[in-house]
């Protein structure tokens, strides 16, 4: 019940300063992780907008793995390299690590890392299996689509550097508090002041919702409008299924009632039939 995840990539940070480097750059507390521990995390620009979203995994005291569900490992490594300076850390977007998604516990070997995630339905589980290349499953497109849809339903934003949606949203607009993906007490990192100010002043008027509609999935940053063509939100990412598509969207909290449409005129609805945006530890 496993498939290689064809869109995802892994960036490896290694060296004596790997953890301190991650702590200084990323929005969650890298120093809190034990070996084989993980959390959702991301890299923000100076304006507090999310450049890339990933699961940060501590393989050992000098090795961190960034699982990027939407890819972009090489682009992220290139951007982060500008901040390495004299730090003893190596950024490797071509490491031997690969990722597989499993709907039953995987046959993990020695040295592999397995991350337990919410499944397709409330109470079910699935497993992200990080392993060395050559030891995992091949690509099963049906299972890979199921995996992506399960990610979308818990609110995982598929955002990678240089792609539509990157550097557009602050963490609160994406409801990343539900995934425990940022830490307000860990100290300074790029964009930290914006995130803290929005949290403590309660100024976030936007949040993440799951939308659905007919036809082909809309591209990222497609506008969602409400009554009178008023701006209501933007699509973060979308995936199709046999009945149309589902999308993660950042929406104005005041514009979620009444009819909604894409900028193309396609009618959409907020998907209340799914266990939308359950916390990752539900």
From TrEMBL:
Cross-referenced SUPFAM superfamilies: Folate-binding domain (SSF103025)
GO biological process: iron-sulfur cluster assembly
InterPro entries, alphabetized: TrmE/GcvT-like, YgfZ/GCV_T_CS, YgfZ/GcvT
Keywords: Transit peptide
Claim: Transit peptide is one of the keywords in the record: yes
Record carries keyword Transit peptide: yes
Protein name: Aminomethyltransferase folate-binding domain-containing protein
Origin species: Pseudofulvimonas gallinarii
């Amino acid at each position: 019940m496993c498939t290689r995840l064809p869109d995802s990539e892994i960036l490896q940070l290694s060296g004596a300063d790997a953890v301190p480097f991650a702590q200084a750059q990323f929005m969650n507390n890298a120093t809190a992780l034990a070996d084989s521990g993980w959390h959702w995390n991301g890299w923000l620009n100076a304006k507090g907008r999310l450049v890339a979203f990933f699961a940060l995994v501590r393989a050992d005291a000098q090795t961190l793995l960034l699982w990027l569900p939407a890819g972009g490992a090489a682009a992220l490594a290139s951007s982060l390299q500008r901040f390495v300076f004299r730090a003893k850390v190596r950024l490797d977007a071509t490491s031997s690590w690969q990722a597989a998604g499993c709907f039953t516990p995987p046959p993990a070997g020695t040295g592999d890392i397995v991350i337990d995630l919410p499944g397709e339905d409330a109470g079910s589980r699935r497993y992200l299996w990080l392993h060395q290349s050559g030891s995992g499953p091949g690509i099963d497109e049906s299972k890979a689509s199921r995996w992506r849809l399960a990610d979308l339903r818990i609110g995982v934003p598929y955002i990678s550097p240089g792609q539509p949606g990157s550097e557009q949203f602050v963490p609160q607009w994406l409801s990343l508090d539900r995934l425990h993906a940022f830490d307000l007490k860990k100290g300074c990192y790029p964009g930290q002041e914006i995130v803290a100010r929005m949290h403590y002043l309660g100024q976030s008027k936007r949040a993440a919702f799951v939308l659905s509609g007919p036809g082909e999935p809309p591209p990222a940053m497609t506008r969602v409008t409400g009554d009178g063509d008023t701006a209501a939100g933007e699509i973060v990412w979308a995936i199709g299924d046999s009945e149309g598509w589902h999308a993660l969207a950042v929406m104005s909290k005041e514009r979620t009632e009444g009819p909604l449409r894409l900028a193309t005129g396609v009618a959409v609805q907020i998907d209340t039939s799914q266990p939308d945006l359950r916390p990752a530890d539900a």
